[in-house]
Amino acid sequence: MFFCAKKIVYLSLYEQGERLKPGGFAGFYGGRENVRIHVQVQNAGKEKKGRYPVYLIAYRHDILLGDIVLEEGRGCFEKIFYADRNRMTVGSFCVEAEDICGIRIELSENSQIKGMLKASSETGNSFSDIEQPEDEKCAGEKDAQADKKEMQEDIVLEAAGKETREPAFFFQENIPADKWEQLKRQFKSLHPFGDEREFISIELKDFVVLREKYQKLVNNSFLLHGFYNYRHLILGRDYKIGESTDICFYLGVPGVFFEREKMVAVMFGFEGFECAGPVEIGKFGYYLRQVEI
Questions:
Q1: Which residues 6+ apart lie within 8 Å of 251 measured at CB?
Q2: What pairs with residue 217 in β-bridges?
Q3: pLDDT at residue 166, as a whole number
Q4: For 52-94, what is each residue's pLDDT tens digit?
Q5: Fold of the 2-153 domain
Q6: Are 7 and 83 in contact (CB under 8 A)?
Q7: What secondary structure, in 3-state letters, does the chain show?
Q8: Where does the pLDDT of residue 160 fall: very low under 50, low under 70, confident under 90, or very high at 90 and above?
Q9: What pairing do the DSSP bridges indicate for beta strands 124-129 and 156-157?
Q10: 21, 237, 239, 259: least CB-packed within 10 angstroms?
Q11: Residue spans in the chain of domains classed CATH 2.60.40
Q12: Radius of gyration of the chain (CA)
């Protein structure tokens, strides 16, 4: 299956529909439950500076993945999406692997960076790389090797199920009686819901603060999706969901509220959603699950 392996798509710069030069590469890195899409852009033009939309070219329509930030025509973009067998979830869209045709970055009305997958007369779209000119292929392969090295140094190695970096949190010798008070001094505090409830901002490398049985959440696909999109998680005390008196700790994954997203969150153990004010479709907030520290 496509989503269980790596695939590289070489990109080119087009103006007025004419290919001018190599433009970088896009990598699809499939795991058991997610797909990481990494886009590396080069040669977009030194005058290109700012944010530009990145689209997944699908069989029926293009789907916005997010924005890439370019500086002097160079930049990178990366996001993680859920994958279930041969199907990937992108926002409110569910895309079959066989419907994916390529990657496109819109630079202007007449200028874009694009890479396509070769069409198959039998299945419509396969996942074989399109033939590339030798200069583009060499440049793309060189970048692909660099990306492979970067991927090997990622925070989480799914196969090993362990952190690759030393955790930032270490208990001091004079440990305070209240562990939560210690954590609030150790990490950045925030009020994500616009009220008096205080949470701390943590990353994957900080899961050592959780009880051992919850540290395996570092491999939870829903959690990884939210973390790689927003680069933080939250941890804090709150009333138990459905209760009015009992207090417990919650781990929060940032995201936008949609019914489909909520269903996926529940499947991965995140039973609640909180935001500033009333919960509404399209509103940013945090998907929560109970943990222990």
A1: 210, 214, 217, 223, 233, 234, 235, 288, 289, 290, 291
A2: none
A3: 36
A4: 999 998 877 789 999 999 888 888 888 888 877 677 888 777 8
A5: Immunoglobulin-like (2.60.40)
A6: no
A7: CHHHCEEEEEEEEEECCEEEEEEEEEEEEECCCEEEEEEEECCCCCCCCEEEEEEEEECCCEEEEEEEEEECCEEEEEEEEEEECCEEEECCEEEEHHHEEEEEEECCCCEEEEEEEEEECCCEEEEEECCCCHHHHHHHHHHHHHHHHHHHCCCEECCCCEECCCCCCCCCCCCCCCHHHHHHHHCCEECCCCCCCCEEEECHHHHHHCCHHHHHHHHCHHHHHHHHHHCCEEEEEEECCCCCCCEEEEEEEEEECCHHHHHHHHHCCCCEEECCCCCCCCCEEEEEEEECC
A8: very low
A9: unpaired
A10: 259
A11: 2-153
A12: 21
Q: Assess whether pLDDT exceeds 70 at residue 176.
A: no
